[in-house]
Amino acid sequence: MIRKVAVLSLILIFMVIIPVGAKESPYSIEANNLVLDRAENMVRAKGKVKVDFKDTTIIADELEIDMETKDVLAIGNVILIKKKEAKKNERLNGERLTYNYESKKGELLKAKGTMGKKKFAGQEIKIVDDDLKLKRAKLTSCKNPEAHYELIAREATIYPGEELIAKDVEVWLGGYHVMTYPRYRTSLKTNDLTPLPSFGYNTDDGFYMQFNYQHYVNSKLEGDIRLKATSKATDEVALDYKYDLTDDLKLSPMLTYDRAEGWDSRLKLNGTTGSLLDETKVNWQLESGYGHNEDGGQEANRSDVRLRLWKNNYRLTPTTRLGLGTDIRKADYSSGEEYKTYEFNFDLNKQSPVLADLRFDFDYVKDIGQPPGPYDFEDLDEDKDGDYEGWRHYYRLIFNGHPFRLSDKQIFDWQVRGHQFNYENGDKYKYYDYNGIYKYSLTNTTTARLGYDYREVSGEAPLRDDRVGTKENMVLGLGYRNRFDQGAHLNITGDLKYGLDDQQYDSIRVKLEYRTPTKNNAYWQISSDLDYDLINNELIDESGKDQHLAIKRVYDCMEVGVSVDFIEETGKLNFNLKY
């Protein structure tokens, strides 16, 4: 009966308000009690009020609409819903709302809301179009009423679906004030982690504290600040900023300081211009730097300039892409030496529906002069190896084979690579390698693997970093993967490598990942990656991992973990907030 009264009242309102032939009404109303005050040109509603606008819905205990000014006043258990794509509506709750449905501006008091997994609240929220401006904002992603952490900001602006920017942000953990960010920015598109200071130990630094801070100034200027304080006087500071001069031109000043080695300053100008074969723009970078380096009581300064041009993934055909790049660098040292390098490269990628995808790379590099030893200036001299001077060519041809499915339980995967390096002094260095792996599913959770690796080398390479060794190995592996209830899973793989060239077992590698069931919005995760040399009886690091054991406690809103590297003898404690 109430609904019928509401509908009849609504029809009466529209008959009175909207002249014949006028455009469609901007809203519709449902309520237990609905009154049209023609004298004041007002609509008043009470009891389970719901107003639908084109892109907004307001629910409240009481509501008034001024038909002349387009202002809406909602009081009591207010819900404001901004209609978006399916399942992405934005929802705000509060006690009192003033809103103009024509200008789409308003203010919600004692408000709170959610966007994805991120929650926010504020003493007041101002609504400007789709953006939200919060005063004394509280931010968290915890599901529990008693949040594990809160970020409390003096003010914050939410750009729905894009990002959140806040000022004077206090970090509170379990009721304790930990630190304050002057400015804070996080993406609403991705589930970013907000890092807090991490602590650890390694043989080079001793005990250390490390902190990374994303310093957001405004929409055109932002940067990263990295700090590392150590017990062995190897402190580090790095400032890396980016300023958008235009949409296609960016300026990046950088400064790094290492207490043990020296400092380096960089100024980069990045841009895009023109077009390549009328498709997309070409990227370019002009860089200049000045640095100071110390080694064994000796000192050297270096000034350098660098120009880069590159174009990635130019589409020659729907299945063929080409990348091009040029890199010119010149460095002058306080000792009088001069060092120049020139590099040109291209890579061609061809996707094929049968057999294998093809990749062909070519690099031309020419060195003139030598950097002074024993210095190792980052980004330029660190790749210089030996006293070789002149040009060199690198050719690489790679076939990435498509997996062959031999049956429902059997798969064969393969790759073939060929390399040839030519040097100005007449040296040539060639090698090719092949690897294949056969997989057989023993059960739904267990897989056996048999692999073969082969590499043959010929010629001489004057640069140490260009040299590789021969090999011929068989690898026998076994893998177990199983998923349980509440997100729990267990993955274990083991590989035993046997050297066919020296007829002995070479190494064994074991990887493990275990996650416990989720309880009270939290779970444990343990991962390990160990590679053991059976010949020399020691741990090795062929995988390139910087950790061999990691234990994490993951909550719905944060995670804390410990990682250990047994080779480097390092340990690290990390704490991250999910906001």
Describe this entry's structure for a reader:
It is a single chain. This protein has one helix at residues 2-17; strands spanning 28-30, 33-37, 42-52, 56-66, 71-82, 90-100, 105-115, 118-128, 131-140, 149-159, 163-173, 176-187, 194-195, 198-202, 206-216, 221-230, 236-246, 249-258, 262-276, 280-295, 298-317, 320-333, 338-350, 356-369, 390-401, 404-405, 410-423, 428-441, 446-459, 471-483, 489-499, 504-515, 522-533, 538-540, 549-555, 558-565, 570-577. The chain has a 22-stranded antiparallel beta barrel. Strands 1, 2, 3, 4, 5, 6, 7, 8, 9, 10, 11 and 12 form a 12-stranded antiparallel β-sheet that branches. It is 3% helix and 67% strand. Among the domains are: 1-95, Sandwich (lipopolysaccharide transport protein A fold); 104-188; 263-384. The protein is built from 1 helix and 37 strands. With 579 residues, the chain is mainly beta. The longest helix has 16 residues, at 2-17.
> Major sheet: size, sense and barrel closure?
22 strands, antiparallel, barrel
* Class of secondary structure makeup: mainly beta
- Gyration radius over CA: 32 Å
Shape: globular
Distance between the ends: 47 Å
Count of discrete alpha- or pi-helical segments spanning 4 or more residues = 1
Mean pLDDT, all residues: 86
In helices, the fraction of residues equals: under 10%
* Parts with pLDDT < 50 across at least 5 consecutive residues: 1-22
Strand content: over 45%
Number of strands: 37
